[in-house]
Amino acid sequence: MRLVVILLIMASESFSLWCVDGNDCDTTCSFCEGAACLRVQRQHPIRGISTAMTCLPHDSLIHAYHPEGCRTELSTGEKLCLCSGRDFCNPANRTHLSLLLITLFMFLL
Predict the structure, then answer these.
(1) Are 29 and 86 in contact (CB under 8 A)?
(2) Where are the alpha helices (DSSP H) in the chain?
(3) Are 78 and 40 in contact (CB under 8 A)?
(4) pLDDT by residue for the chain (109 residues), tens digit each?
(5) Domain residue extents for the chain
(6) Which long-range contacts (CB under 8 A, 24 or more apart) does 64-68 make?
(7) What's the Cα-to-Cα distance from 11 to each of 16, 36, 99, rounded to whole Å?
(8) What is the pTM of this model?
């Protein structure tokens, strides 16, 4: 019985928010939840280009101060994209590896 409760808890918590990779807000922000997505692209001398994307919650105020779209900082070369009109974050259901292993183990018994 405890195993069933653990499986239910793990299954109910197995979702996360992720950002769609794209730089055109008009074509890639059509299906989303959340307030906005912030996408930052930095140039590193050794590692090359790195991209970081994060979803902003509804109570975040950054999207109120910055216009939607992409811009490049001239001093650092950092490219910053902010999409909030139709959001840019998606609820992504994912299954934890441990949940799959426990389920497989139960079927093998």
Answers:
(1) yes
(2) 2-12, 25-28, 62-65, 97-108
(3) yes
(4) 555 555 555 544 444 444 555 444 444 444 445 567 777 888 888 888 887 777 676 666 665 666 677 788 888 888 887 776 544 454 444 445 556 666 666 666 6
(5) 15-104
(6) 68/25
(7) 12, 26, 7
(8) 0.45
SS3 102: helix
> What CA–CA distance (Å, rounded) separates 102 from 38?
36
Beta-strand pair 79-83/69-72: antiparallel
Rg (alpha carbons) of the chain, rounded to whole number: 19
| CA atoms in the 13 A half-sphere facing the CB of 78 | 9
Decide: 17 and 89 in contact? Cβ < 8 Å: yes
Distance CA(31)–CA(88), nearest Å, equals: 7
